[in-house]
Amino acid sequence: MRVFRWLLPILLLFTACHKEVREEVNYDQVMYGINNVAVYSSSAEKERQKTPVQYISILYGDLFGQRIPNNELNKLTLISLANGDKTMANELILSHYLNSPQLLLPTDQQMRDDLNTFVEATYIRFYKRYPTPYEKLFFVNLIDDDQAITVEMVYTAFILANEYYFY
User: Fold this and answer.
1) C-alpha span between 74 and 56 (Å, rounded)
2) Is 162 helix (H, G, I), strand (E, B) or coil?
3) What is the pTM assigned to this prediction?
4) CB-based contacts of 101: which residues, under 8 Å, 6+ apart?
């Protein structure tokens, strides 16, 4: 009976005292289904040239915002590899994409409504970097001064530039 007298308070002490565990949640890194894009600080960081497969699939992704179907990638890669003049082959592929009815481009009026945003978005879209202040000023002035420049012309200039061939 004496053992029970000592045992009861000890059991009550251990069962009555327990530490409440509290979990803290940090919401600093909340993701909302947005794809992260590596942004280069300058074009000098791009050292490797894209292969024809990379060029075609990245071009398709940049223009249409989705992955290229495998059968189309295979067909266009064979055309690119079979052609000796890679620049001409790339221009033909680009022309094919720019004439596609599925391609959604901003209108020329949307481009001219906010040239600064358009130029910055175009640099990020195709070069994965922000334009330098001089590049931004140059393109804003060029587009603003020449009313004949269209969105297709700007996209063509960016895609056919040497920087687009590297990553």
Assistant:
1) 10
2) helix
3) 0.70
4) none
When pLDDT is averaged across residues 138-152 and rounded to a whole number, the result is 96
Alpha carbon distance 63, 76 (integer Å): 16
Which of 24, 101, 103, 20 has its CA nearest to residue 59?
103
Q: Which amino acid is at 1?
A: M
Is residue 40 helix, strand or coil?
A: strand
pLDDT digits (tens, 9 = 90+) for 65-79: 999 999 999 999 888
Q: How far is CA 125 from CA 8, 61, 68, 84, in A?
A: 73, 10, 17, 28
Q: Where are the alpha helices (DSSP H) in the chain?
A: 2-16, 52-64, 70-82, 86-98, 108-113, 115-127, 133-145, 151-160
Residue count (the chain):
167
Question: What pLDDT does 52 receive?
Answer: 87
pLDDT at 86: 81
DSSP class of 166: B
